[in-house]
Amino acid sequence: MNAHNVIIRPIISENTYALMENNRYTFEVAKDANKFQIKDAVEEIFNVKVVRVNTLRVKPKIKRVRYVAGKTRSWKKAIVTLREGDTIEIFGTQA
Q1: Burial grade of 33 (CB within 10 A; 0-12, 13-18, 19 or more)
Q2: How far is CA 76 from the centre of its chain?
Q3: CA torsion angle 6 12 15 21 (round to 10)
Q4: Which terminus has fewer CB within 10 Å in the chain: N or C?
Q5: Across the 95 residues of the chain, what is the mean pLDDT of every consecutive 10-residue run?
Q6: Per-residue confidence (pLDDT) for residue 90, from 0 to 100
């Protein structure tokens, strides 16, 4: 599996910004990717050293639009811990 097919996008929220201060970055990853593939993909794309990878599956939630009930999509999230001193610049230049 290609590294760019494993890492789909970074997750940007208030919670993930708090994690970034501790060298922990959150990504949406492919559902069938395992921790070793995620580690290799992050190291290849961002040229950093990964210490730990935690993964979890996000379950779909029920949403309603008027009378029709449906579900959001299910996806996989990875929280990657980097070596001390390594950083990933998600927006190019962070202030």
Answers
A1: buried
A2: 8
A3: 80
A4: C
A5: 94 94 96 97 96 97 95 97 92 56
A6: 79
